[in-house]
């Protein structure tokens, strides 16, 4: 009898744009070690609602690990080697996360990606992230690797101008998105997370973005 192919490795990578690859479920096999590592990170550097330079608290709660962490306050946005809340270095980037990001980047055509910063974004149902570009990193030739956990979200994947229409991309638990090259400065955001309870993470979505910031 002919058997259908065994889909051990999940769905195929999807090329969303010339230098943007969605790897559905790529992080699934590592979720438990990843969450163990994340627990330690957030113990050392708790999630907090940073303020925009205009003084408004962001809906998304944020923390960092790695040599550099992204912060926002009345002075603006920047990467810093110290957590301003504790005056301590950010917790180290967990090896499981660095290795996952390196493998995902290589699959997407970016060999030798070594991140030095990882932003942790924490969403509750209703939280959104407005359209933005990631341009605080030094070298735009380096990609960004994004890992989604918990509740699903609709990612808005726009163009190089804010006014360009954005595509809606579903990001589910375990999905990894890699983008760089000419797509690196695309505007993007996250629609309000819908209500729901994820079987592993409950009423939350966590997104990890790994970057080479310095
Ligand atoms: C999020 N992600 O998915 C927010 N930025 O919650 C981002 O802002 C992002 O996924 C740069 C590259 C990939 C991303
Ligand atoms: Fe971003």
TrEMBL record:
<protein>
    <submittedName>
        <fullName>DNA oxidative demethylase AlkB</fullName>
        <ecNumber>1.14.11.33</ecNumber>
    </submittedName>
</protein>
<keyword id="KW-0560">Oxidoreductase</keyword>
<feature type="domain" description="Fe2OG dioxygenase">
    <location>
        <begin position="114"/>
        <end position="214"/>
    </location>
</feature>
<dbReference type="Pfam" id="PF13532">
    <property type="entry name" value="2OG-FeII_Oxy_2"/>
</dbReference>
<dbReference type="InterPro" id="IPR004574">
    <property type="entry name" value="Alkb"/>
</dbReference>
<dbReference type="GO" id="GO:0035516">
    <property type="term" value="F:broad specificity oxidative DNA demethylase activity"/>
</dbReference>
<dbReference type="InterPro" id="IPR005123">
    <property type="entry name" value="Oxoglu/Fe-dep_dioxygenase_dom"/>
</dbReference>
<dbReference type="InterPro" id="IPR027450">
    <property type="entry name" value="AlkB-like"/>
</dbReference>
């Amino acid at each position: 009898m002919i058997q259908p192919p065994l889909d051990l490795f999940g769905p195929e990578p999807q090329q969303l744009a010339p230098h943007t690859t969605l790897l559905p479920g790529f992080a699934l096999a590592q979720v438990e070690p990843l969450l163990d590592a994340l627990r330690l990170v957030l113990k050392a550097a708790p999630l907090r609602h940073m303020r925009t330079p205009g003084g408004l608290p962001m809906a998304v709660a944020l923390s960092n690990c790695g040599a550099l962490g992204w912060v926002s306050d009345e002075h603006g946005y920047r990467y810093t080697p110290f957590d301003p809340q504790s005056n301590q270095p950010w917790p180290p980037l967990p090896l499981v996360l660095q290795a996952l990001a390196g493998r995902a980047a290589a699959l997407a055509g970016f060999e030798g990606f070594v991140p030095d910063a990882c932003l942790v974004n924490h969403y509750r149902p209703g939280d959104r992230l407005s359209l933005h570009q990631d341009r605080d990193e030094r070298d735009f030739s380096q990609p960004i690797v994004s890992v989604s956990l918990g509740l699903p979200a609709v990612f808005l994947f726009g163009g190089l101008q804010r006014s360009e229409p954005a595509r809606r991309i579903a990001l589910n638990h375990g999905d990894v998105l890699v983008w760089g090259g000419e797509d690196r400065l695309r505007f993007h955001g996250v629609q309000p997370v819908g209500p729901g309870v994820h079987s592993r993470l409950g009423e939350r979505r966590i997104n990890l973005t790994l970057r080479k910031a310095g």
